[in-house]
Write a structure and sequence with these properties.
CATH architecture of the largest domain: 3-Layer(aba) Sandwich
Structural class: alpha/beta
Number of helices: 11
CATH superfamily of the largest domain: Response regulator
CATH topology of the largest domain: Rossmann fold
Number of domains: 2
Radius of gyration: 18 Å
């Protein structure tokens, strides 16, 4: 039986390259492609792939939140992060979300087949270049309250944080989420309290750092 793979990346050329590469692997096939987190979650529901190759920085829902949602509903699915980010915050965030592997885009074509086979064997694959970053992130002292608390935000709080960081007003956020302005303000206070942040500029900086939004 072939390993069924879903590709998620907002760059069509990269998806085409990976699709062509996977087609050359024995017993593997690409069953679908998505360009954003929302489409990825929908396609996982429809196609139930064995492995999702997941970009991190994408429009709408990013790869970290998409991974978290996918694995909450499809715990048997394996997610391999595929990113240009050589940063321990992104690495640790993806593994906290439940990813089984992490590849850098500049080395993906050499490692992809090995990574897929390893995660399908219920093991974890980490690109050798970032293995040290992962160890470092696990051994960090909890000195940065904002980053430590980021993983404890609820899905709705992450949505509000993303919309705030994108420059939306309270009223605009309320309309987007179909809630009251009072509810948005409540979420804003919760987010700022958990992250120990007191202004929008700092929230925006953190959202960019964590891959919640891109610039």
């Amino acid at each position: 039986m072939k390993t069924r793979i879903l590709l998620v990346d907002d760059h069509k050329i990269l998806r085409e390259g990976i699709c062509s590469l996977v087609s050359s692997y024995p017993n593997m096939e690409v069953v679908g492609e998505a360009s954003d987190g929302n489409s990825a979650m929908r396609l996982v529901d429809e196609l139930t792939p064995d492995v999702v190759i997941m970009d991190i920085s994408m429009p709408d829902i990013n790869g970290i939140d998409a991974t978290r949602n996918i694995l909450a509903n499809h715990p048997a699915t394996k997610v391999i992060a595929l990113s240009m980010h050589y940063d321990k915050q992104f690495v640790s965030a993806m593994f906290r979300a439940g990813a089984s592997g992490y590849l850098l885009k500049d080395g993906a074509f050499d490692e992809l087949e090995q990574a897929i086979r390893i995660v399908m064997d219920n093991k974890t694959y980490v690109n050798p270049q970032i293995a040290g970053l992962l160890v470092e992130s696990l051994s960090d002292q909890p000195s940065d309250t904002g980053r430590q608390s980021f993983s404890f935000l609820t899905d709705r709080e992450r949505e509000v944080l993303k919309l705030i960081a994108e420059g939306n007003s309270t009223k605009q956020i309320a309309n987007t989420l179909d809630v009251s302005s009072k509810t948005v303000e409540s979420h804003r206070r919760q987010v700022m309290g958990k992250l120990n942040i007191r202004n929008v500029a700092a929230l925006t900086k953190l959202a960019i750092k964590e891959g919640l939004i891109t610039i």
